[in-house]
Backbone:
């Protein structure tokens, strides 16, 4: 993928991955808790666009992210952009070194209780892909 492609506007049908870096974020039935979708204390939530990437490349980016912060990679939460948009959030391309497909989910309410309500709904709409 070229850098120009990563800067294209994010379409509402695009798939996104949110890397799961804490085992406690996944219930025993393999559904996701809301915690990985709460941006607090940050203003935005980091995600990776699938844009031209295969499964191997998506896992590679996740391993890099986990390695940078000294955590283990347990899996990925998968959502389409329109899942976030239904909650009046926006997804904007934000390439970073090592991940030209990085994007931010923006327009979160400022208070954590409101963020948690939205995160609960997004978690319920997510698919979990376990790292094998």
Residues:
């Amino acid at each position: 993928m070229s850098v120009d492609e990563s800067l294209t506007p994010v379409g509402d049908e695009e798939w996104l991955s949110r890397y799961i870096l804490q085992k406690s974020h996944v219930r025993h039935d393999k559904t996701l808790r809301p915690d990985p979708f709460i941006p607090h204390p940050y203003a935005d939530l980091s995600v990776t666009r699938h844009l031209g990437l295969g499964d191997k490349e998506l896992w590679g980016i996740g391993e890099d992210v986990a390695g940078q912060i000294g955590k283990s990679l347990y899996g990925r939460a998968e959502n389409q952009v329109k899942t976030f948009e239904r909650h009046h959030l926006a997804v904007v391309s934000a390439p970073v070194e090592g991940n030209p497909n990085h994007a931010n989910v923006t327009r979160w309410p400022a208070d954590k209780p409101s963020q948690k309500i939205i995160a609960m709904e997004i978690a319920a709409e997510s698919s979990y892909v376990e790292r094998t």
